[in-house]
């Protein structure tokens, strides 16, 4: 419908991936309306790269009507089958990568700069620059592990591809903060660190320090 009404629509296979490599296309992309997952995730990703997302819509939760109203359109227009087929062809032709971009991003509207995430992560994902904690090596993050998001007391760490809120940037509290779980994670972290040390494997964070 957007295309039929003259809007320039680009389909991206992985917006997180573009942010992780700081693609030169980002500033152009975020100057438009981004239809993606949670706006808090998109805003945090944009701020991380020094950009400001102008307008975002949440395609997980907003209705078709709400999203189309951003473009002054109403969902009463038929999308003809040939257009739908063309969109599927575009989606099928999107480049695929071996693994999903999986990394944390900090919601700076919540972060208190306590440094716990920097302390916790053994893989050098976080750094501290001018007393501000930031994600410096997203590619070092271990796939599907949102551990540091659980130790953040401010619930400021977002993994956009995680399935539960607030870690995925949503507003619900599917996974409330659990101090007991935090103690367990710190113990596991210590065990892992000792194992790696015994095996003579240097941990990335120590290398950075
Ligand atoms: S643990 Fe949370 S509040 Fe503390 S520095 Fe990291 S993101 Fe910010
Ligand atoms: S999820 Fe694990 S590896 Fe990734 S940044 Fe957090 S602590 Fe580090």
Structural features, described:
The chain is α+β, with helices and mostly antiparallel strands and 209 residues long. The protein folds into 2 domains: 15-92, no CATH class; 105-208, no CATH class. The chain has helices at residues 15-20, 26-30, 39-48, 64-69, 81-92, 116-120, 147-151, 179-198, 204-208; strands at residues 33-36, 55-58, 105-106, 126-129, 132-135, 157-158. A two-stranded parallel sheet has the order 1-2. Strand 1, helix 3 (39-48) and strand 2 form a beta-alpha-beta unit. The mean pLDDT is 88.
Features:
binds iron/sulfur cluster; single chain; 6 strands; 2 domains; alpha+beta
Topology:
Layout: H1 15-20, H2 26-30, E1 33-36, H3 39-48, E2 55-58, H4 64-69, H5 81-92, E3 105-106, H6 116-120, E4 126-129, E5 132-135, H7 147-151, E6 157-158, H8 179-198, H9 204-208
Parallel strand pairs: 1-2
Antiparallel strand pairs: 3-6, 4-5
The chain binds iron/sulfur cluster (2 copies).
Residues 106, 111-117, 133, 152, 154, 156-157 line the site of one iron/sulfur cluster.
Strand content: 5-15%
Number of helices: 9
Major pleated sheet: 2 strands, parallel
Number of domains as seen in the coordinates: 2
| Percentage of residues in helical conformation | 25-40%
* Poorly predicted ranges: none
Give the class from helix and strand content and strand pairing. alpha+beta
The shape, in one word, is: elongated
Quaternary form: single chain
């Amino acid at each position: 419908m957007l295309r039929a009404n003259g809007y320039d629509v680009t389909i991206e296979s992985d917006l997180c991936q573009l942010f992780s490599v700081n693609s030169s296309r980002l500033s152009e992309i975020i100057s438009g309306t981004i239809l993606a997952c949670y706006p808090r995730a998109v805003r945090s990703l944009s701020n991380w790269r020094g950009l400001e997302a102008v307008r975002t819509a949440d395609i997980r939760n907003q209705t078709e009507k709400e999203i189309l109203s951003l473009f002054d359109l109403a969902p009463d227009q038929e999308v003809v089958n040939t257009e739908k087929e063309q969109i599927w062809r575009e989606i099928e032709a999107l480049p695929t990568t071996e693994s999903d971009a999986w990394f944390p991003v900090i919601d700076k509207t919540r972060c208190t700069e306590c440094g716990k995430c920097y302390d916790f992560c053994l893989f050098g994902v976080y750094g501290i620059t001018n007393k501000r904690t930031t994600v410096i090596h997203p590619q070092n993050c271990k796939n599907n592990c949102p551990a540091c998001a659980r130790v953040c007391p401010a619930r400021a760490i977002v993994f956009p591809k995680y399935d539960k809120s607030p870690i995925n940037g949503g507003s619900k509290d599917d996974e409330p903060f659990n101090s007991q779980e935090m103690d367990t994670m710190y113990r596991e972290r210590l065990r892992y660190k000792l194992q790696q040390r015994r095996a003579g494997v240097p941990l990335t964070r120590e290398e950075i320090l």
